[in-house]
Amino acid sequence: MPLTPMRELLDRLSVSPVRLRALLTSLSESALRTAPPAGGFAPIEDAWHLRDIEVEGHFPRIRRILAEESPVLASIDGDRLAVERQYQQRELGAALDEFAQYREASLGLLGALAEEAWSRRAIFQDRSVSLRELVVAMAEHDESHLNALAAESDESTTREDSFATAPASPGRAAVGTAASR
Predict the structure, then answer these.
(1) Which residues fall within 8 angstroms of residue 166, CB to CB, at 6 or more apart?
(2) Which of 57, 101, 154, 166 could form a disulfide with 53 if both were Cys (CB 3.0 to 4.6 A apart)?
(3) What is the DSSP letter of 2?
(4) Which of 22-26, 86-90, 134-138, 170-174 is least confident?
(5) Is the pLDDT score of 31 beyond 80?
């Protein structure tokens, strides 16, 4: 893979902390801690999950691939961590800040690599993977969480908008009209 696509990949990774912060900092405390109706993580849990995967997964994996010959990389059970570490009880700011800090450190390791370094290999989840494949998986993992958060935010806004524009009952102004402000 030429370096230009790798630069694009690194750029995608660099915006993940910014997107996460933008998606979550405007949420109410209730919305932040409410899981989507279809199941999955609440937004606060997504933030801590991305933080923990970066700090304990991606960053150390990148370091090991660059420093060792074919290291065996540990997998992380994100669902188990969410329960054990009580993500629901934690504060958002620390997750956002630490995710951004460690992502910057990961990008610092990756930013100046020679082309051949992207082909270095490791064993991860019982198969051989290159650093390139691992970094692509990082971006896909980020984007799956960020896209789900964005979709849930859009659905929540649509639900709120349809409630806000519901017709008024006789003798009462509609919610969201000038009469109710």
Answers:
(1) 174, 175
(2) 57
(3) -
(4) 170-174
(5) yes
- Domain-located, residue 179: no
Domain that holds residue 98: 3-156
Rounded to two decimals, what is the model's pTM? 0.83
Mean pLDDT of 160-181: 37
Instruction: Classify residue 177: in a domain, yes or no.
Output: no
b/e per residue 83-115 (b: at least 16 CB within 10 A): eeeebbebebeebbebbbebbebbbebbeebee
Locate 87 and state its tokens: 């993500």
Distance of alpha carbon 133 from alpha carbon 155, whole angstroms: 32
- State which H helix or E strand residue 149 sits in: helix 131-164
If one counts the domains in the chain, the total is: 1
Q: Cα–Cα distance between 160 and 120 in angstroms, integer? A: 49
Type of residue numbered 103: R
The CATH number of residue 30's host domain is 1.20.120.450
Tokens of 94: 């620390």
